[in-house]
Amino acid sequence: MATIGEFNLSAEGFEAVIFDCDGTLVNSMPSHFEAWCEALALHGAGGIFKEDVFYAMGGRPTKDIVVEINDEYGLKLDPERVAFAKREAFLKKLGQLDLIDEVAEFAESLRGKVPMAIATGGTRLVIEKTLQAVGVSDLFEEVVTADDVKVGKPAPDIFLKAAQLLGVAPEKCLVLEDAPAGVMAAQLAGMTVISIPAPLNVAKK
């Protein structure tokens, strides 16, 4: 049985399991941070996005984060242009990605037993390429992205959409999440959440 910290991972009592992608299933957060830094520097805002702030904002749609950066620093960055630059920078780093072993082992153990979905604040293009890069695209019945809902995390919409597509009541879903916004979103959706500890979603030494 897979474990996270001192806890055994189990889907017992649940009818579906929903996974966040970045920082939960895939060790991609360091690469996302690098991409953010490159995109912001390209638009004249290099050095303003600190790593601890980046992790605190994890799970939220890219354009929403740009809007908050504008508000925080009095900038006028174009959310669409920065999001595009960040996406392009990240896609060049797909070869750096690997799975978070404990979570991937848990997902693999549920193959064919419990329906599973990805619910992510990323865009469909990026998430599909991420899942392909680490070889787990075939594990999940559904993938719900920021492109599929009007409001991203910490609103519950992404998780509720995933439950709807899986045909399972929200209260019967187990969620694995690493980011505060994602944990809040899952809780607002009425789901049980296992929080993935930060040491698992940072760069491997």
TrEMBL record:
Matching SUPFAM superfamilies: HAD-like
Pfam families named in the record: Hydrolase
GO molecular function, one term: sugar-phosphatase activity
InterPro entries from the UniProt entry: HAD-like_sf (IPR036412), HAD-like_SPP (IPR051806), HAD-SF_hydro_IA (IPR006439), HAD_sf (IPR023214), PGP-like_dom2 (IPR023198)
NCBIfam families named among the record's database cross-references: HAD-SF-IA-v1, HAD-SF-IA-v3
Name this polypeptide is given: HAD family phosphatase
Organism of provenance: Luteolibacter luteus
